[in-house]
Predict the structure.
Amino acid sequence: MGKKDTYAIRSSRLCDTAYEVSKLDEDLNLQETYLVSEIGGQGSGSLVCTCFAGAKNCRHQKMLRKFQAEDRIDSGWRYSFDKDKWFPPINVEAVD
Ligand SMILES: [Zn+2]
């Protein structure tokens, strides 16, 4: 738990401007999923998150911007927020 956690982001099937931020432990078990949404449309600059800190600028919102900047949403890439490090997709990871 903690320092070895990584995050993956994929587009929500519910909404064009929402993203599912999945928190994974070092064995890639899903810990939690947060929904980060663009407020006022794509590119408006405002985000909201379902985590307890979501009204402020939480780490999930910052991560979404990093994934967008690197074009790694829905790619299987994982990101360690604590280490600021990327991990490439693993083939055995199921993508539905
Ligand atoms: Zn959050």
